Amino acid sequence: MRAIYGKKLMMTRLFDESGKNIAVTVLEMPENTVTQIKKVDKDGYQAYQFGMGEKRRLNKAEAGHLAPAKTKSAKLFEVKTNQDLKVGDKIGLEILNEGELVNVTGISKGKGFQGTVKRHHFNTGPRTHGSNNYRQPGSIGSTFPQRVVKGRRMGGHMGAERVTSKNIEVFKVDRPNKRIYLKGAVPGANQSLVLIWSPNEKPEIQEAINEA
Predict the structure, then answer these.
(1) What are the boundaries of each domain within the chain?
(2) What pLDDT was estimated at residue 20?
(3) What residues does 77 pair with on adjacent strands?
(4) Assigned architecture for domain 3-110+166-206
(5) Please, which residues have CB within 8 angstroms of residue 80's CB and are 6 or more apart in sequence?
């Protein structure tokens, strides 16, 4: 089982042994708690559900589901594994090692409504000679079929969607402070929750409980 939720804190830089400047993302890694055990005879498969974070207010269904684990998890994910765990057990930084490659899944920063130049990298038109088509999208259809076809690249809402960055190296593991440093950038804003998981084992992210 190689998956754990963490909190993105910030980006900074560290220096390797040769003195090279490395851009890193700092993640705080609190322990994740087993909130439910899926069994073959009842659910059809063997898996563990983990929770992380703390939601300020739970409804009755959420409170009842999380009561056995004695937690108020804001994020849930599920991993199929044959490990022998029980509800309330915790996992932490012991599952991550320096130098290994991981995938990171998070909600990207929201950009609001954006035009085609920023959203789809359209070329701009001429600025001179009286042109009024500098950042406009241009034609969006033709005589047939007398409508805008599905999938037409246009302006619209950008960002705020689930994104996965793959094969990111764990540059440093700070176990006393429960932090890890990943090379490069990862999806999400500062203070947002991100899921770190092994490329060989994709967890199922639960949508029942959202971030508070």
Answers:
(1) 3-110+166-206, 114-139+151-158
(2) 93
(3) 50, 205
(4) Beta Barrel (2.40)
(5) 45, 46, 47, 201
